[in-house]
Amino acid sequence: KWQEFPADVLPAFIAEMDFDLAPTVKSALAEAVALGDSGYSGGSTDLADSLAAFMLARYDWAIDPADVVRVSDVMVGITELLRVAARPGDGVVVNPPVYPPFFSHVVEAGCRLVEAPLAVSRGRYELDLEALRSAFAAGSRIYLLCNPHNPMGRVFSRSDLLQVVELAERYGVLVLSDEIHAPLTLPGARHTPFLSLGESARARGIALVSASKGWNIPGLKCAQIVVASDPMRALIRRLPEHVWFRAGNLGVIASVAAYRDGGGWLDELLAVLDRNRNLMSTLLAERLPGVVYRPPEAGYLGWLDCRALGLPQEPVDRFLERGRVALTAGLRFGSQGSGHVRVTMATSREILAEIVERMRAALA
Question: Which member of 89, 224, 292, 325 lies 3.0 to 4.6 Å from 305 by CB, making a disulfide possible if both were Cys?
Answer without folding.
Answer: 292
